[in-house]
Amino acid sequence: MEYSFPEGFLWGGAVAANQCEGAYNEDGKGLSIQDIAPKGLRGPITEKPTEDNLKLIGIDFYHRYKEDIKLFAEMGFKTFRTSIAWSRIFPNGDDEKPNEKGLEFYDNLFDECLKYGIEPLVTISHYETPLALSKNYDGWVNRKLIGFFENYVNVIFNRYKDKVKYWLTFNEINSVLHAPYMSGGIFTDKEKLTKQDLYQAIHHELVASALAVKIGHKIMPDSKIGCMILGVPNYPLTPNPSDVFESMKQDREILYFADVQARGAYPKYMDRYFKESNIKIHMEPEDKEILKNTVDFVSFSYYMSSCATADTEKKKASNAAGNIISGVANPYLKASDWGWQIDPQGLRYILNLFYDRYQKPLFIVENGLGAVDELVTDESGNKTVIDDYRIKYLNNHLVEVAEAIKDGVEIMGYTTWGCIDLVSATTAELKKRYGFIYVDRNDDGTGTLERYRKKSFYWYKEVIRTNGKSLIYNYR
């Protein structure tokens, strides 16, 4: 069976500034919330940056981006998703003037992409809120962050309007429910954070996202601005109606965020939740009008699916690990080295779910396999990684993307996470590798930072060259 993708399909890969750039205190950059989170999403935060925080150096992309983008071009990338570190542009977040050195770095980065015909796909806020906004304002709990964000997007849209066409507002915006510090810059301890403050913070982010769309369309009429959702579809564990209903409720935790950004208003099902949770969202008179500025497309990450059950004992007995969100294990699925259940068909399912609901173009901006890779020397004497397991994972997911296209789903592109090894967001490890390019750096900080092409590098190059025709049905 031969697969093909639409002409102009945006093949590429994705990274985040805080996980790859390093140079955390160079050229006027201020501290971000990541710089004091050495153990990732689930770990404690420190008073100041510590040497065990691998993100402070990352993979030194800040100094090596030209080398890396050349490798992406060799693979044939049509797009490269990265983020702007907000604290490179506004070191404290509330500064009056932007940091010119930070602006210049992204000028150079985007120019380097365009030199090879690679379209930058830029996330405006990717888990890297300036630390000062977190400490001094409690992050997005404070409405003042809307104004600071508005100032930030005005600066970057005006600066890069001729270089960047595709934008995402907030990375995995719904993850704030599970990681309020990392996702929302909320400094209040998660255990002490009230639902009222959490959902008020969410409202502020949703308004800010819509405001970015409004500003972006004015400054860049031809731009495409999308939202970005952490996508984990929920299957009922059994046909028991209680399990089916529980899966619907858990899906709404994801859909709520996309509903507001793609439809332009709060969904009615949230009224009951707010009432029963004693949550009263404070809205300024202009908020409802601002929210009507809907996104041009819906993007999302997909690594795994989950199961839902109303049976509390089954919930306790069967827990599946995941990217920020964890759920009940599916007995029909295998898992990765980190316990994430592998479900290629779930990608086709969520593509259809989103497209049926929103009738807007979709963009898969994260999908990949984190694994322990072994660097070996091949017959030609070159260092590489024989990562057939990654090829199998990506091939089988892309086959399901092709099936979704046949289903009638409009899909703009696909960017693997992360196209080059980087520091994990959830665990802050380097041994959890995703890339087509091996980076010689280890969890203890040792390594040369040299780059080596893995077997999957050449596989993905062929997928892009053939526009998907080289994919294998039922790859084993």
From TrEMBL:
Organism superkingdom: Bacteria
Sample GO molecular function, one term: hydrolase activity
InterPro entries hit by this protein: GH (IPR017853), GH_1_N_CS (IPR033132), Glyco_hydro_1 (IPR001360), Glyco_hydro_1_AS (IPR018120)
Catalytic center residues: E366
Keyword Hydrolase in record: yes
Signal peptide residue numbers: none
PROSITE patterns reported in the protein's UniProt record: GLYCOSYL_HYDROL_F1_1 (PS00572), GLYCOSYL_HYDROL_F1_2 (PS00653)
Pfam families, alphabetized: Glyco_hydro_1
PANTHER family: 6-PHOSPHO-BETA-GLUCOSIDASE ASCB-RELATED (PTHR10353:SF122), GLYCOSYL HYDROLASE (PTHR10353)
Similarity field: Belongs to the glycosyl hydrolase 1 family.
Protein name, entry field: Glycoside hydrolase family 1 protein
Organism: Clostridium rhizosphaerae
